Amino acid sequence: MGIVAKKSEEWKEDVAYPRSLVRVGHYHQPAGCEPLFETIRFGRELIELVTGGRGWVSVEGKWVEVTAGALIWQVEGDQTIARSDWDNPYRCLAVEIATPYLRGLRRAPRVAWWHDVEEVNRFTDEVVRWSVDDRVDRTGLLAYIYGRLLFQSRLSARTQVREEDALPEPLRQALSLLESGEEGKALRLGEVARRVGWSLPYLHEVFRTRLNTTPHEISLRSRMQRARERLAATDQPIKRIAADCGFGSAAAFCYAFKERVGVTPLSYRRTATSTRRG
122: closest CA among 233, 219, 17? Predict the structure, then answer.
């Protein structure tokens, strides 16, 4: 996981957004042989999300090992996974997108990590299922897939730094605690600091200087993402989602959600359900 992305200010926002979903598939590399890799052509992006096994991708002339959770973002001129473990071949969700006028620019890190492998597999299953369902609106599906992968890729970049500028282990542990959370509980920042062996003021200071954010922001963003997923994919009551995502009450959750997302949880669910049904 040593090779990481460019800093966020180098990611390009002033380029055309995706036009269409070209193909979606869950690829299983055969054992005992190397993959037939491809070079991405003009006007295409190809995203590989590794769901299992082990492979390698060439990044700036170096082989980078990719295992479950690796999120590889390829643009014009990049090569797909080109080596595989013969005994434990890689598997990946492959999403090809038409993006005219991209001209080799990238919006996301070349290699990032989605650390929750169970979540990776759930996402893969639903995307593959919806991609072959004629009732699902293609524009909405493209927006969901691209947005989710872009979100996870950029979120990962907060913890992926070059080896010579690696994050201290306590900071990595703090990020993991804040991003994963505990079912039905938002860890108090004092508890996070205690678990990693830091004082609370020092925890805040390190987040500010190393990540340019706050522990609270990381926690809230992660909990909101989990809430969005449940609103879009389940019919669980708002009260239960609020509790499971660490909010003290449904009212507190609804207020925070609208402040963050711009709509109420119920409105968000209605829109997401409408998109899924086409």
Answer: 233
